Amino acid sequence: MIQSKLKTIFLALGATLIAISMIILPVETFDASKRGLTIWWGTVFPSLFPFFVISELLIGFGVVKFIGVILEPLMRPLFRVPGVGGFAWAMGMASGNPAGAKITARLREEKQISKIEAERLVSFTNYSSPLFIFVAVSVGFFHNKGLGILFAIAHYLGNILVGLIMRFYGYSKKEKLEVKNSKFRVWEAIRALHRTRIEDKRPIGKLLGDAVVSSIHTLLMIGGFIILFSVINRLFFHLQITALLASVIKEFFAILHFSNQLTIPFISGLFEITIGSDLISRVKESTLLQQSILTSFILGFGGFSIQAQVASILAQTDIRFKPFFIARILHGLFAAIITLLMWDPIFGKQYESNEFPISLPVFLQNSHSFLDKLYQWGIEFGPIITICSLLLYIFIYSRRYVYKK
């Protein structure tokens, strides 16, 4: 009871402090809000919206059930989740945070996975997309193409390790791990696909409308969290709270022989990975290895902004947030350790300084060019996609409102 009251007081004081800070620092609050809105408006919405819509359609049409039957022999022994988890795994990687949580919550609502399986699945299906790692972080912030390879290896391999560890979460001897070997698994998957589509009696128009409405509802929530944490991050910096937290971490960094100048950027990255990665890349008093290790950690940790988005999505189901939070800490640690271990094999000692950017292999240069053009295209046309999508949402919602009346 006392603990609950202390929590209430702490939350009330925190909210009051933020409100007063917004009044005292209106210019900083406005600038931070505008920056968060720009990120959501131009990048997050247009990049996630198509994936959210298509994932809803694939679930409704039974394609996810089809994939689940095919991938059952892989996902069940490795991660102790049904084969449909492979869909969340792949889509989460392709579209980035927090798509994995969105799809996992949807699978749980459809009763395709159990509560324990959902908590295992969500722990390793939320990570940064290759577009963000290669273009935004390695090229945009560090101006070093080769770092993208290192970040990607550390990030995705670390995530697989998290999945392998979380397979023991909620383990029960009653849980069946045997997967029947069937020569006709494809036909079994086709039957499951057809059965799922027949059971969902919504017409295609209704299914598409539901997919658009559900996706935009989630993206509006994500946008709110991005703006909120952008403001909180800026206010904490001006209120010297970030500096206070950095003074604590400074002692730990001293043990690791990391530059003290990395403490404040690291704290910022714990709140928002985009801001943190950018600030870490600007610290000239540190080595590139130190910057890479910390960047890999915050990419794996995800930042409180993304974690709040996931918590909001999971709150609509019976999936608990605590396993996901523990998995994020593990992911950050694994990614940081892998970055350290892979540094010499990939870069060698000659790249210990920022002055020696590494070049990508020939077979990856074209892919980087494509990603770069795709990123620039998103910046240019992202706001237009956002506006058109919101207008479509208003149209569908208004038609349904009139129909109900």
UniProtKB/TrEMBL annotation:
Organism: Heyndrickxia sporothermodurans
The protein, known as: Nucleoside transporter/FeoB GTPase Gate domain-containing protein
Pfam families linked to this entry: Gate
Keywords: Membrane, Transmembrane, Transmembrane helix
Keyword Transmembrane helix applies: yes
Lineage of source species: Bacteria, Bacillati, Bacillota, Bacilli, Bacillales
Transmembrane regions: 9-27, 47-71, 121-142, 148-170, 207-229, 293-313, 325-343, 374-396
Nucleoside transporter/FeoB GTPase Gate domain residues: 43-141, 219-315
Keyword rRNA-binding: no
